[in-house]
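quick one, 107 residues, struct below
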Amino acid sequence: CTLASFIESIRSFSEHVSLLDYGDSEAQHQRLCFVKSNWMEKMLMSQFGFHYHHLHHKFPTVPVLNLSNFHVWCDQNIPDYRNSFYSRSSYTGTLLKCLLKRNLETL
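---
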């Protein structure tokens, strides 16, 4: 379906684009991004908790359906866990930020 492909493209782009908005950090280079998406984005773009994208890159053997529970476990058991990734507010917000930044740079 064309709409599903478009939505998947926004999700993938937002999780992997480097805006250097978090400096030149290891988390930025490894794409350890957590997306604080709203309920609509979770329903359309991250149905299986894939907004825990940082865990997918750091622990690729954890099944996608377990990422939410694993995030809680990591938060409780790994020291300094919250500093091992960066957060973005939303998928669409990241896309818009990138588009606006690009448009402003070309003026």
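Residues 2-16 form the longest helix (15 residues).
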